[in-house]
Each structure stands twice: as C-alpha cells, then as structure tokens.
Amino acid sequence: MAIPKKRKIENKANSANSANSANNTASDEGTVSEVIGIDFDVFNLKNEDLNGILLMLKQLFTNLPITYNGLATHLISQKDVGSVLKLPIEEDDSGSDSDEPDIFALVSVVNLTLHKNVKCVKKIMVLLKNLVEKNVQDPLIKKQFNDYLEECEKSENAKQIGLLINERFINIPAKPSYPLCKSLFQEINEKNYNFFAYFALCKVYKIKSNSQQDIFEYSKPEDKIFERYSAL
After folding, report:
1. Where is the sequence biased in composition, kind Low complexity (predicted)?
2. Theoretical Cys-Cys bridge with 34: which of 23, 82, 171, 198, CB 3.0 to 4.6 Å?
3. Strand partners, 19
4. Other beta carbons within 10 Å of 166
5. Could you tell me the residue range of the domain that residue 84 belongs to?
6. pTM of the prediction?
C-alpha cells in the first residue's frame, strides 16, 4: 500500500516541485547540455524514512554533538508535522510497491519548550548554548539568545520556541522548499503550537575576497529569507 501523500500540497508538489539537472558532454565541436526534469512527491514522515532522515540530519548537523537517531525518531513521532521529498512511488506488476525511494529533502520543527525533557532535545539545547557562547560576539545579542534559551526551560504553558529543520541534497534547487515550508507552518497552526520565536540552523560559506571584511554565502537561498526577517 502506498504511503499517503500530503494532499494539501500535492498539486503544488507535482506541478511545481521539479529539479533540473544538467548533464554536460564536451566534444570537439563544443559543449552539449542535456536538461532532465524530475518530479517529486511530498509525504508525511514515516518509520521507513528513518535512514533517509538520518542522512539529512547528519548533513545539517555536520560533526555536531547531537543524538541523530533520537532526533530522527522524535521527528517521525510528531504526527502530521513535517514533510519529506521523494521520487513518486511506482507499483510493480503485482500491485505492491517498489522499494522505498530515497529522501531528497526534509522540513520539520522541534518544539524546544514542549519537549524539553526529551533526551535528544536536551542535547540540542546544550548545543545551541555552546554555539551561542562560542560564535556570538555582541554581548546584547548573546543575552537575547540566552533569554530565548531560558524561555524554553520554563513550563510547557510558557511561550514556545521551535527549532526549524530544513535540509536537502545540494543538487536539489530551492523551489521545492517553499511549498514544504508553507505546509509546515500550516501544520504548526493546526497543531496549536504556541511559538513566539524560531531558531534556524543555517550553513554559511566564507568566500575568498580581497576586501578586509569577510564575505559569507548561505548554502541554501531560503536561509537569506530567514535572516531578512530574523529578530537577531
């Protein structure tokens, strides 16, 4: 039996979520480019997605001390929150499904306040505190971050803080991320999470430049949008 698609964004996923890959073949006469369109489908997180989710988390939290298996299991346990991007599932001649397709993108959220006692979330809280202490130089911004983190440790009825999980393979363009993120925030509203702030872990690359000021580039274009609307 095929895994149910997320109907609310199924049409967008089928019509808009396509990745173009170029296969460049050099010849004596020049370079020939072949563009291949790939359609993706969007699914809820399921137990059979564990290995693919682990791969996405290890790519997002590269070499960072978190409990990958625990976090992946926690994300799956959140019913109707989060999405994964896969190739369409094709049925074989017998009517049964083929092998489970790989995951190409993952979008979800961790409620740091509501689930503060979950082991993997505790690890994330320690990680965030260490990252702030090590990388934030401005004392005012550091204090604001720490105030947010302290807010997470209050009662479950307090204002909640979410950690956005947004990762995909590097050769997958940004286009599929927009309906995935839109769907996530719709699910958050339906879940009645009382988020008053979000943390987002965004990768940046330092670009070589002749200028004295360091220049950084985000690994994912949508991270620029997160920065544009961020409070800190």
Report:
1. 13-27
2. 23
3. 38
4. 22
5. 7-19+34-112+162-228
6. 0.75
